[in-house]
Amino acid sequence: xxxRKAVITAAGRGVRLYPVAESVQKGMLPIVDRDGLAKPVIQxxxxxxxxxxxxxxxxxxxxxxxxxYRDQLHLLRENLISAYEGVDWAREQAQRLDxxxxxxxxxxQEEPLGYGHAVxxxxxxxxxxxxxxxxxxxxxVSNMAGHxxxxxxxxxxxxxxxxxxxxxxxxxxxxxxxGTLSGKRMPDAPGLYQIEQIIEKPSLSMxxxxxxxxxxxxxxxxCLFGMHVLxxxxxxxxxxxxxAHENGAPEIQLTPALQELARRERYLAVEVAGARYDIGSRFxxxxxxxxxxxxxxxxxxxxxxxVDLLAETGxxxxxx
Length: 320
Prior knowledge:
Strand content: 15-25%
CATH architecture: Alpha-Beta Complex
CATH superfamily: Spore Coat Polysaccharide Biosynthesis Protein SpsA, Chain A
Number of helices: 11
């Protein structure tokens, strides 16, 4: 197996980030990366893929977003070259943006018909190859120096020659926010599971009944990380939902297709050395920014600022 392509689903309008997402594309919101430089979120996610060995990236976007992404990334690149001529970090960043632009493709989701529909639209780009799937509102912070979360996933998929989803052990009160699964531990392979059942955002009672994974501590579940390596056969698993929608069924979700994939063929889940952060959740952008900063070159300065801030705010009552 060789994973050359990545798909980033970015067609959602970012309603959890309103009102700012009304005027700024979610993917173009700025965040300070581990190298201490402010970048658009879409650049950070694309670099997660490209720095992990992927060669081509397809962004599934809303109507009108392709020229906006291209224009803004081109403008950012040109501004770096013109405003910081001869400066090493600016030249490096311009080169990184140029690499993204040269390997960037788009598929347009004309209507918001669900996550599964967005993935289905990338089938021509995928062209019968396995692919890395990422979410545009999840950022990933690896605990393994020089080895990104996506690279860890791809390594497992290549070694096992099958579909693999990244999972994160998650407390029970959070399962309603994520796709949650049950699995069977693979012998002699710590953190690797054979997927048995997947349910999208289950209630806690449903998780307790159907999604217990032997070996996990009580009250903890395996939740999807927002990162998969999938075979092209996932599109065949999506086709019944696409056909049903054409006959009036609700929007097309990915999780039932993943469940069908697990039924038809070998589909594993793996815990990687790292964590995912959802920028669209409540305080998610702040939490993500802190995680990136603590994993980067400015860690000591960030710690000092946090200590000072805690000391300052601890001396006064919060505003009513």
